[in-house]
Amino acid sequence: MKIVIIGAGPGGYVAGIRAGQLGAKVIVIEDTEVGGTCLNRGCIPTKAIIASTEMLEKIKDVQEYGLEIKGEVSASLDRIIERKEKVVGTLVKGIKGLFKGLGIELIEGRGKVLGSGKVWAILKDGAQKEIDADKIIIATGSRPLNIPAFPFDGERILSSDDILGLKEIPKGLIIIGAGVIGCEFATIFRSLGTEITMVEMLPHAVSTEDEEISEALERELKKRKIKLILNTKVEKVIRKDGDVVATLTDGSEIRAEKILVSIGRAFNTDNIGLEESGINKGKRGEILVNERMETNIPGIYAIGDVIGGMMLAHVASTEGLIAVENALGGNRGMDYRVVPSGIFTSPEIGSVGLREKDAIQKGYDIKIGRFPFRALGKAHASGEISGIVKIVTDAKDDKVLGVHIIGPHATDLVHEAALAMKMGGTAKDIARTIHAHPTFSEAIMEASEDVHGIAIHIPKKS
Ligand code: FAD
Ligand code: NAI
To answer: 289 FRET partner, CA 20 to 30 A, in 132, 154, 191, 298?
Structure first.
């Protein structure tokens, strides 16, 4: 069986490796660099930079921990970016090594589908090649959404790709969109000393999260002196006297050295042969697939950001595994009910399952448990007391419907909740699972106890 995969992001490269492990002959076509957005312009670069800025934040508090630094600690964005590039380089090399070990052929160039069983590749040197395939997987991903009201110029009006290459710390930054990307970059640049104003057209920052979590993050942003303007749209942006000026819906203007535009992503569907092959697209331009990741054309699958679902690396990878299993004769469907997500703000956010309002909307009679990190020994010992764990359960049978965490290590903690939900677990199951002391995980146990009003470390509710 020969499988051709177009795009080597976390969707395509993971699919390629699994197909290789299962004995298929695999060709992966990649236009830029293996690892895609996630490894080169997304998850890993941002988290490498966050490792530097988190260390900087810790250092600011050294005296509180009984330590002293003689001399000054200052940030060099140039060196932070250099470290980030080293991290990315190591991981890219790792993926290429895994490909080699499995005999996966990597074609550097642009791929285009020519209908069932045929792919066209335009190589980096301009040469062209037609490739036969038994099965094709489209994994071309997404790119920053560029709109005429504020087109990227790479210098002052920046995309998330552009900002990752900045060598000097901007004095002032306006961020359009307080979604996931906007909030992560606000966290990073505020630590580096940049004055930040975020403008969000919806009533809350990270509005895809549970409202209590969004509100908690908004308070943290305020504490860090990040200005957040909600319920307000940026209408247009112009360059003026070496600055950028944004006009808001109320007619007011705000000005800064640079602007980050983080208002969502566009699908990479141009020129990949969708029209020629008759592959159906949805209203937003995403490739339409069924739960087996099949497009409407037999033998052609699509996965990851380009299908327009949850735009997360681990979702793309899981969809890749499912597409490969099905391409090789299996029959597995994608289940989106238990997908954990992490937002790497300060503090972090981790969530899985239904938000309170979703659960109510779906007609559940719900019970909620909450536990604040400030009631936890480990949080005090570590000096990280901000945040809460919130558990939404079905009052009928105590099953966990959703868990929402803002606080230290939330992006790791959330997986206990994901496993409990995957296994059909109840709040009582989590509460009765012995949690080691002192750990941040105890907050999940106590929040589960709180569903029944019996958390040990919070006062009796009046
Ligand atoms: P992509 O990663 O976009 O990869 C697609 C690949 O296809 C690219 O390499 C592209 O060059 C290639 N390609 C496109 N067209 C062609 C063609 N015609 N021929 C050949 N190759 C082609 N997600 C998380 O889960 N956690 C995070 O912490 C996180 N952080 C992020 C931070 C930022 C700043 C951004 C922008 C995104 C972040 N994401 C995060 C989202 C994550 O990066 C994406 O969901 C993920 O990369 C999608 O994977 P994919 O394989 O579908 O597409
Ligand atoms: P997003 O959809 O999360 O947020 C965009 C925000 O911009 C929205 O809140 C929207 O209301 C706002 N907006 C749009 N136009 C506006 C305007 N003119 N004025 C003011 N506000 C405006 O998109 P974002 O942040 O670009 O991220 C894209 C995707 O990348 C997300 O879907 C996310 O899944 C993924 N991602 C995931 C990360 C993680 O898992 N940690 C990190 C970064 C990105």
So the answer is: 132
Query: In this structure, what are the phi and psi dihedrals at residue 7, rounded to the nearest 5 degrees?
Result: 105, 130
> At 193, which amino acid appears?
G
- Cβ atoms of 214 and 222 closer than 8 Å: no
- Closest atom of ligand 1 to 121 CA is 19
Residue 461: predicted pLDDT: 72
Which two tokens mark 234?
């940026």
Q: Is 350 in the pocket of ligand 1 (CB under 6 A)?
A: no
Q: Against a cut of 0.90, is the pTM above it?
A: yes
The position carrying tokens 């009201």 is 149
By C-alpha distance, which of 306, 302, 291 is closest to 337?
A: 291
Q: Which atom of ligand 2 is nearest to the CA of 207?
A: 9
C-beta of 262 in contact with ligand 1 (< 6 A): no
Ligand 2, residues 183, 199, 201: which to mutate, most atoms within 8 A of Cβ?
A: 201
Tens-digit pLDDT profile for residues 146-168: 999 999 999 999 999 999 999 89
β partners of residue 248: 234
Strands (E), 295-408: 300-302, 341-343, 348-353, 366-372, 388-394, 400-407
Q: Is the C-beta atom of 207 inside 6 A of ligand 2?
A: yes
* DSSP string of 121-186, one letter each residue: EEETTS-EEEEE-SEEEE---EEE---TTS---SSSEE-HHHHTT--S--SEEEEE--SHHHHHHH
Collect all residues with Cβ–Cβ distance below 8 Å to 395 and sequence separation of at least 6: 364, 365, 366, 367
Residue 120, strand partner residues = 112, 130
Task: Provide the H-helix boundaries in 278-405.
Answer: 313-327, 356-361, 377-382
> Looking at 404, 415, 437, 457, which residue is catalytic?
437
415 is annotated as an active-site residue: no
